[in-house]
Design brief:
18% of the residues lie in helices and 44% in strands. It is α+β, with helices and mostly antiparallel strands and 267 residues long. The strands form 2 sheets. Strands 1, 2, 3, 4, 5, 6, 8 and 11 form an 8-stranded antiparallel sheet that branches. Strands 7, 9, 10, 12, 13, 14 and 15 form a 7-stranded antiparallel sheet that branches. β1 and β2 (22-27) form a beta hairpin.
Length: 267
C-alpha cells in the first residue's frame, strides 16, 4: 500500500496529456534555482522551456522504455530484460547503432507506478490505432510504449541516394496496438499533418518526424540533372510516395537537435 503526495496535487505540476496508463506532467517553472540561474529559469518558463516527465500507471500490464529512462518505480513492479541471449543482444546492438536508439529496452510489468526521467523536450503520446500501417520515426524519438507495440528496423529503399543526401539508412518502425510516448524537439501543436493518397511530397531537409510505414521513403536529386540541382540550390530532397500520413516540423530537426544538445547537454 502506498500514497503519493505533492506530485499530481502540486500547483507547479500540470497534467498536459493522458492516454491509457501514460500521463505527461509538466513543471510550470523550475523552483530549484540559484541567484545566478533565476533569470534564465524565469524566462525559460515564459517561453515554454519546461521540464516534462512521463508517469506510467501499471495495472498488471507491461511497458517498454528506452534504456536509462527510468527515474523511480513504486509498488509490485518487476523489470525484465528484452534480451534472449548473446545472439539477440548482438542483433539489438546492431539495430540500436543504426537507428540511434538504445539497444536494450527494459520492460516493466506488474502493478504500481513507473516514473521516467525528466526532459526539456516535448512529449507526444500517440495511439497506434491512428497509424494502421505502422509509424516510422526520426532518429532518437522513442521514449516508451505499451509492450503490445512491435519495434522493427526499416531500411531506405534507395541506399546510394540516401548516402549522397547525408541521411541515415535505417529508421525505427512501430506497429501493433497500444500507446507510444515520443520525445520531440517541437510541440505536437506545431507539427503539420499531411495525408497523402497515392501522391508524393518532397522535403528539403530533416523536417519529417514521423510517417506511415506504407510510404516509400527515398532521397533523390531535386531535379533530373546534377547541374539543375546545383542551380536550384536544393541538391537532394527527402521524397515520400504512396498513401499515408506525415508529421512535419516547422524547423529542421538536425539543426534543432544540435542547439538542444548544446543547451541541455545532460538530457
Amino acid at each position: 500500500m502506498y500514497k503519493i503526495k505533492n506530485l499530481l496535487n502540486n500547483e507547479n505540476v500540470k497534467l498536459v496529456d493522458k492516454k491509457e496508463g501514460m500521463r505527461v506532467i509538466e513543471y510550470q517553472k523550475d523552483l530549484s534555482v540559484t541567484p545566478y540561474s533565476a533569470i534564465n529559469s524565469y524566462f525559460s518558463s515564459k517561453m515554454n522551456v519546461r521540464k516534462r516527465q512521463v508517469l506510467i500507471e501499471l495495472n498488471n500490464d507491461e511497458y517498454t522504455i528506452s534504456a536509462g529512462a527510468m527515474q523511480w518505480v513504486l509498488g509490485n513492479v518487476e523489470m525484465i530484460s528484452n534480451v534472449k541471449g548473446v545472439g539477440d543482444l548482438l542483433g539489438k546492438a546492431i539495430k540500436g547503432s543504426v537507428t540511434k536508439e538504445s539497444a536494450v529496452k527494459p520492460k516493466y510489468k506488474g502493478k504500481g507506478i513507473l516514473m521516467l526521467e525528466p526532459t526539456y523536450r516535448y512529449i507526444m503520446l500517440e495511439n497506434m490505432e491512428e497509424w494502421p500501417d505502422g509509424m516510422v520515426l526520426d532518429d532518437g524519438m522513442f521514449l516508451a510504449c505499451q509492450s503490445t507495440v512491435n519495434q522493427n528496423v526499416v531500411m531506405r529503399s534507395n541506399v546510394s541516394s540516401a548516402l549522397l543526401g547525408k541521411e541515415g539508412l535505417f529508421n525505427l518502425k512501430l506497429d501493433g496496438q497500444g500507446i507510444v510516448a515520443l520525445e520531440s524537439l517541437v510541440p505536437r501543436s506545431e507539427l503539420i499533418e499531411i495525408n497523402l493518397e497515392n501522391d508524393v511530397i518532397k522535403i528539403d531537409g530533416n523536417f519529417a518526424v514521423a510517417w506511415s510505414g506504407s510510404l516509400d521513403f527515398t532521397v533523390e536529386k531535386s531535379t533530373k540533372s546534377l547541374i539543375g540541382a546545383g542551380l536550384s540550390g536544393e541538391g537532394f530532397v527527402n521524397v515520400y510516395r504512396g498513401t499515408g500520413k506525415i508529421l512535419l516540423a516547422p524547423v529542421n530537426g538536425q539543426a534543432m537537435n544540435q542547439i538542444h544538445s548544446s543547451a541541455f547537454p545532460s538530457n
